[in-house]
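quick one before i forget lol
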Amino acid sequence: MKAIGVAENKVLIDIFKTNLFRTKKVLLFSRDLFSKELLDFFKENEFQVNEIFNIEDLKRIKKIYPNFLDLTGFIKDKIKSFSDSIYISTSIDPLSSDILSIVNNLERVMIFKSMQDIINKVFDFSYSFNYQLPIFKQVDFWYYYYHFDRSNFDFNFVIVNVPYFHRDLFKEVHMGLIADSVLVYYCIPFNVVYKTIFDLLLSVMIKLRYNCPWDKEQTSFSIK
């Protein structure tokens, strides 16, 4: 089993054209979450596409598997028959967010999106947040779906893989498509966005204060 983190359609199609993985079997969490362009490519090139759930299963998933462990157990059992497939992850980090990747000791994982990419997309610029990110927790949508009361919960973490048909569950958040290859959204609460902006401002001020020769020479009077 190999896993690919979500990427743009062109990137994914180019990878499959190279036959890098030497297989024409693909495993998706649900084909309903992926773009028509990507699915058409698989069909035209005679890829065998399998899925763990269909869209109707996803809509009533909590009724089918009332306990989160039941769901994870089902996924673990189902993937055993797809050992020679390529799994396309709808999460930002398939090593931490997708149960399938965690339990399968993957031979190879390729990640094309990161939380830093998403933060930069929110602000429409490129900046390294490696040392200055606000404190928040990345949560898998399905974990959130099972464990939190959505009607009365003011969350302060990022949810990175919300299916398009569950967008209405989230209020007061910034949302956007993760990539054009999937109909999956990242979900960032506005309070996290605001804190990130403020942290960025502070980080720039600190850098200037301690690393810029001109800044080091300034006094309160010269600044005035």
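fyi The chain is about 40% helix and 15% strand.
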